[in-house]
From TrEMBL:
Transmembrane segments: none annotated. The keyword Nucleotide-binding applies. Its EC number is 2.7.1.36. Keywords: ATP-binding, Kinase, Nucleotide-binding, Transferase. It comes from Christiangramia flava JLT2011. SUPFAM superfamilies: GHMP Kinase, C-terminal domain (SSF55060), Ribosomal protein S5 domain 2-like (SSF54211). GO terms for molecular function: ATP binding; mevalonate kinase activity. The lineage of its organism: Bacteria, Pseudomonadati, Bacteroidota, Flavobacteriia, Flavobacteriales. It holds the Pfam family GHMP_kinases_N. This is Mevalonate kinase.
Length: 312
């Protein structure tokens, strides 16, 4: 048995901010995917995945008991399938900021939620919000507080715009310019990050007034501008705002940037060859880059692995 594919995602803008109330924009990233699969002979990796599913199933049982009005699962089938050797067969790297847990959550909801909202129905704003809430609760098993956006993106396989906590919608993003020199790219940091501890650091920082002020007056402000510019296709303004965002992140989200990338991050801002930002929670995994000239960026980042995900 092999279930439908669920894709990775890239949160172009909005990491951390969307836990509070910033705008956010995420797009599916079809390069990686995963599907539920049942096999009798499990490799070590599949066995680990199977064990993870077992723990997740116990969590879902609790979730359902505590939130009977939110969501119901066919837990008997889920448990039986796990006993038969079900695992999440996925090429999505874990702890890389491209939503490995989100795709897993989407796959489990799709297969085992009994009263599920399907992708085929007319997705009203209320239904989208309900789905996001369910996914947020489900995904928090993997990394504490979750906005639910990753699984939502994976489940629907369309770009999603978060206007605010209570206002989300499918987004039309400007079509890519073929042969355009501007690009969004993934930079592989070569180490994995862990979302849970990063989100905890953020929540701890949020207890301090100066950090909250910085978040509201700079981080969220620049994030919101980037989202608006990107959707409008205003590339010039976008780069000016991404630069500001890159700067604020370097100054205030240091634990989320692997130490060996601090210099490279700064160099981008100083030379204007590229601007780096967090891709998801950070702490490792991918770093997201924006450049007006991909060849220049490749030269400046020689020796690093760049994957272009969008062309301007
Ligand atoms: N194929 C898989 N099988 C079982 N669990 C998985 C699988 N992929 C991801 N996970 C779970 O999701 C966690 C990673 O999710 P997360 O910390 O949100 O990082 P990210 O979403 O950035 O990859 C893993 O530690 C693991 O618990
Ligand atoms: C930090 C956060 O805003 C994005 C996390 O993304 P990821 O789990 O690193 O892919 C958390 C969330 O919104 O669930």
């Amino acid at each position: 048995m092999k279930g439908p594919l669920f894709y990775s995602k890239i949160l172009l803008f909005g990491e951390y901010g969307i836990i509070k109330d910033s705008k956010g924009l995420s797009i599916p990233y079809n390069f990686y995917n995963g599907a539920l699969k049942v096999d009798e002979n499990l490799s070590d990796i599949s066995k680990k995945s199977n064990e993870n599913l077992r723990k997740f199933a116990a969590y879902l049982e609790e979730l359902q008991e505590n939130n009977p009005e939110l969501v119901h699962f066919d837990l008997e089938s889920l448990r039986a399938d796990i006993e038969r050797g079900m695992y999440f067969d996925s090429s999505i790297p874990q702890g890389y900021g491209v939503g490995s847990s989100g795709a897993l959550v989407a796959a489990i909801y799709d297969k085992y939620a009994t009263d599920k909202i399907t992708v085929l129905e007319n997705l009203t704003r209320d239904k989208l919000l309900k789905l996001k809430k369910i996914f947020g609760e489900m995904e928090s098993f993997f990394h504490g507080k979750s906005s639910g956006l990753d699984p939502l993106n994976s489940y629907l396989s369309i770009p999603i715009l978060i206007n605010s906590k209570e206002n989300i919608e499918p987004a039309g993003i400007p079509s890519q310019t073929e042969n355009g020199t501007g690009a969004v790219f993934l930079l592989d940091s070569g180490i994995t990050g862990e979302t849970g501890p990063m989100v905890s650091i953020f929540m701890e920082n949020m207890k301090q007034e100066p950090f909250r002020k910085m978040l509201k007056e700079q981080f969220v402000k620049h994030t919101d501008s980037c989202v608006e510019d990107f959707l409008k296709g205003d590339v010039k303004s976008l780069f000016s705002n991404v630069k500001k965002l890159s700067h604020v992140v370097l100054d205030n989200f240091k634990p989320m940037i692997p130490a060996q990338f601090h210099k490279l991050w700064k160099k981008g801002i100083e030379t204007n060859d590229y601007y780096l930002k967090l891709c998801g929670s950070g702490g490792g995994g991918y770093i997201l880059g924006f450049t007006e000239d991909i060849e220049k960026a490749r030269k400046a980042l020689k020796g690093y692995n760049l994957e272009v995900v969008y062309n301007f």
